[in-house]
Task: inverse folding
């Protein structure tokens, strides 16, 4: 079984959606975020106020629904779950620690910690043993009979961590867990989280403090709803990791303030010039395909991972935010197919169809989903120019020639490919 717990592929969160742009552009709180969280990871999310940190945490933890993209949790499609299923899922696998400890004021710390397990009718003796063990680990054993107002902020926050851990969650989501604490208590809480991570707990933490982030194994820096930089600790000391994080946050903030709006050339230059080769994978990657020197949709390019074709060289950013690529001259065949994605925009909810493009080579098959709309026909034409055989059982190329507008093709696909829109349970 895969050790990937969360896999987000080109997820977007749009507030106040305006499909027909009558009032102007939509506000993207999250803009084309691709993210992977594996077991025993300790990942920190940073960024300035309004960058989308808490929104990303809420979407990844299923507290909020994404507007588009793919979000899978332990290989389960989150968008296919009902409210009741999501509640059960959170209870079984997720723990939450917020900036405010959110303890119930009229319950003791013992009862606050026990609440989730009591609701699940856990065995009282086993529950008491579990609480005492957590209290001992978090150094609050002598406080279990006290009420929140009788404890310090740091003590309440440690009780909140115990509350989050009582059901032994797969992932601990922490949103500014030290925001209301002084320096001494902040570091005490982070030392506890580090110890939990070393014992196998996966942690995803949001903070604005580089020193707090230095306790993690990886830092992602968000700006305007998108991932701008990723820094890995690897074998660095905590102090060296802190310096790297501090350099990235200060540099990105300054550059964003001083830079002008990206030009068409700058958008293309975001794709690496000399990517590392990749191995064929069973994981399908969502990309927007563009050909060097050919026109493309700037808005779609801005909101998606670029799949840049320069001659026969292909380069893009994978789910780990690493620059990778391959050469089209190694491809023996291309298989085209369709996939349908239901986009929830309330009254204007609809299915959107995307081509699936599988590049077959001697090493294996590279799997992609193309976010292209009206311009995908030029990609197919390039495959023909390179004399790569194209297997197209759903006659996608014919549909693009016959119905050049995306709206018309979508209506055709709804009529002719009903198997893609049938409810799968």
Result:
């Amino acid at each position: 079984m895969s050790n990937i717990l969360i896999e987000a592929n080109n997820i977007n969160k749009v507030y106040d959606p305006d499909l027909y742009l009558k009032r102007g552009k939509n506000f993207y709180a999250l803009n084309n975020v691709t993210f992977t969280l594996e077991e025993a990871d300790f990942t920190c999310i940073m960024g300035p106020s309004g960058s989308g940190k808490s929104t990303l945490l809420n979407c990844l933890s299923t507290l909020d629904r994404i507007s588009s993209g793919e979000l899978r949790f332990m290989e389960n499609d989150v968008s296919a779950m009902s409210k009741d299923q999501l509640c059960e899922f959170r209870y079984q696998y997720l723990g939450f620690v917020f900036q405010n400890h959110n303890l119930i004021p009229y319950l003791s710390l013992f009862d606050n910690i026990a609440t989730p397990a009591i609701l699940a009718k856990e065995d009282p003796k086993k529950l008491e043993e579990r609480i005492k063990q957590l209290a001992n680990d978090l150094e609050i054993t002598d406080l279990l009979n006290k009420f929140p107002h009788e404890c310090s902020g740091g003590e309440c926050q440690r009780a909140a961590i115990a509350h989050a851990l009582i059901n032994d969650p797969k992932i601990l989501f922490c949103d500014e867990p030290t925001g209301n604490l002084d320096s001494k208590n902040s570091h005490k809480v982070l030392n506890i989280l580090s110890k939990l991570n070393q014992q196998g707990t996966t942690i995803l933490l949001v903070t604005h403090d580089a020193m707090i982030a230095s306790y993690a194994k990886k830092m992602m820096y968000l700006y305007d709803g998108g991932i701008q930089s990723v820094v890995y600790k690897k074998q660095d000391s905590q102090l060296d990791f802190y310096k790297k994080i501090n350099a990235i946050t200060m540099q990105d903030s300054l550059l964003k303030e001083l830079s002008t709006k990206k030009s068409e050339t700058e958008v293309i230059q975001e794709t690496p010039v000399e990517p590392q080769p990749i191995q064929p994978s069973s994981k399908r990657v969502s990309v927007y395909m563009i050909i060097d020197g050919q026109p493309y949709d700037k808005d779609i390019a801005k909101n998606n991972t670029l799949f840049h074709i320069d001659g026969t060289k292909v380069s893009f950013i994978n789910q780990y935010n690493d620059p990778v690529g391959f050469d089209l001259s190694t491809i023996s065949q291309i298989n085209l197919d369709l996939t349908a994605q239901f986009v929830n925009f309330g009254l204007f909810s609809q299915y959107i169809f995307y081509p699936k493009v599988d590049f077959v080579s001697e090493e294996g098959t590279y799997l992609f989903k193309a976010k292209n709309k009206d311009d995908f026909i030029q990609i197919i034409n390039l495959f023909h120019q390179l004399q790569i055989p194209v297997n197209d059982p759903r006659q996608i190329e014919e549909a693009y020639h016959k119905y050049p507008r995306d709206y018309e093709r979508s209506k055709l696909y709804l009529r002719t490919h009903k198997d893609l829109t049938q409810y799968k349970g």
